[in-house]
DNA sequence: GAACCGGACGGCACTGAGTTCCCCGACCAC
DNA sequence: GTGGTCGGGGAACTCAGTGCCGTCCGGTTC
């Protein structure tokens, strides 16, 4: 929407993080921030509806991107794949500013108020995914239930990978971590493995398993078999 | 912990809800509440660390119950079953006061601040489940990932059933709703169906499936087969 | 040029949540 | 009695967030 981003907004974010890092979030007042940034107190709240918002300056934009990504088409793809790709949009935002993301992670880990705020943001992502899946699953038995569960699983997997990357101070491969986690979810929920069922392969898969084998091994085996067939 | 519950706490909750319902949450100040309850302002914050807490007076207790439930044993049961049972503890708390729960549901639906607060509470439940599963899955490949995903799925399913019940104004069968939702999750994640693998049944299961069949159907079929075998 | 106007910014005063400090009265021990 | 302390009350404070209004600045219109 806003084409030119006001430099004042960035100045406020920079000033805020400087202070947050050197004396802590709760020990920093909004007055401190605006004084350091050299602007009026009222202007802070023009750009950020609350003190917490300055810690997550780009989530609103990212949420809009995700909503748009899910809104425009994509119905020819597998729904689970689609929401996984949507989740990767969030990762991309984090990965664009690794040092910033790591600093923010350390902040949110320490400050309960920021954790809570982050939860509300994550919840909105999850709702966006769930709403999309509900549309795709409309009519199926337990459609909304499936949608909610898959959305929650995708978000949990994404966060698992993301946090693992953040804990490594941005040293590990963020995409690899999240891809691995999302693949796990996709393996659990995707009906059929391949992107498009190949036409010239056998129509039947036979699985032989020892009784009592863990289900995840069974699923893994089915996946592997299907993958081999579609090669 | 606290054996005798102070009547003052209940008086504050009652006064708060009367005012919240007749003029709204944000239109009610803490001073209004303490005036109606006939106590000092300071006493309110002695019992509730924040204004939001008065809306969820029993969650702290319930969270402690769940933590204790997961802490003491239960390791002979299937982990997924165990966390599903833990989730049912929360449902029980809601079901104990249906009218109160429905009123609170309507409040949290309208007031964003309360939604956020509720999220932080739900998050703590989810973390309790995830920590338990992480212990149970310790050593397995992707143990923490599986733990996080399953915990998220269980919470999502529980909330799906719970909300469905709350939207019915407490008229429907809460347990049935949640049981159905949790069964869905259990079907997705449980390694093997029966409680204990019987010793005198066949050691091998053969599944024949059409290529491209939805994974949930495949899993369902495996489950059904295993159930038949353990009868 | 002057008058006009709309948007960005600053200053101030206000509400209300949450905290700190201190008070009081009750109840108990000695 | 004196000395505890424990549950509660209350004044005063900090700070986030809001409303109102003033100012300044760039561009228009006459």
From TrEMBL, chains A, B:
Key words, A-Z: DNA-binding
Q: Which InterPro entries match?
A: DNA-bd_HTH_TetR-type_CS (IPR023772), Homeodomain-like_sf (IPR009057), HTH-type_TetR-like_transc_reg (IPR050109), HTH_TetR (IPR001647), MftR_C (IPR041347)
Could you tell me the superkingdom of the organism this chain comes from?
Answer: Bacteria
- The residue ranges of the HTH tetR-type domain are 6-66
**PROSITE patterns registered for this protein in UniProt:** HTH_TETR_1, HTH_TETR_2
- State a single Pfam family of this protein: TetR_C_14
The record's DNA-binding region positions are 29-48
SUPFAM superfamilies in UniProt: Homeodomain-like
Q: What is this protein called?
A: TetR family transcriptional regulator
**Organism encoding this protein:** Streptomyces ureilyticus
Organism placement in taxonomy: Bacteria, Bacillati, Actinomycetota, Actinomycetes, Kitasatosporales
């Amino acid at each position: 929407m806003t084409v030119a981003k006001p430099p004042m907004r960035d100045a406020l974010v920079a000033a805020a993080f400087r202070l947050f890092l050197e004396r802590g979030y709760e020990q920093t007042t909004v007055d401190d921030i605006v004084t350091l940034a050299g602007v009026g107190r009222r202007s802070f709240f023009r750009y950020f509806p609350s003190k917490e918002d300055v810690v997550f300056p780009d989530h609103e934009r990212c949420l809009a991107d995700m909503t748009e990504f899910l809104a425009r088409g994509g119905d020819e793809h597998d729904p689970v794949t689609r929401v996984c790709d949507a989740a990767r949009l969030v990762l991309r935002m984090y990965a664009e500013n690794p040092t910033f993301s790591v600093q923010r992670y350390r902040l949110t880990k320490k400050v309960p108020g920021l954790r809570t705020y982050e939860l509300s943001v994550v919840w909105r992502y999850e709702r966006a995914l769930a709403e999309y899946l509900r549309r795709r699953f409309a009519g199926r038995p337990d459609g909304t239930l499936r949608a909610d569960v898959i959305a929650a699983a995708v978000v949990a997997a994404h966060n698992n990978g993301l946090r693992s990357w953040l804990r490594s101070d941005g040293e590990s491969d963020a995409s690899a971590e999240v891809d691995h986690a999302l693949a796990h979810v996709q393996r659990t929920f995707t009906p059929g493995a391949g992107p498009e069922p190949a036409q010239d392969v056998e129509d039947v898969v036979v699985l032989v398993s020892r009784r009592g084998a863990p289900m995840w091994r069974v699923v893994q085996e089915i996946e592997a078999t299907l993958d081999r067939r579609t090669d």
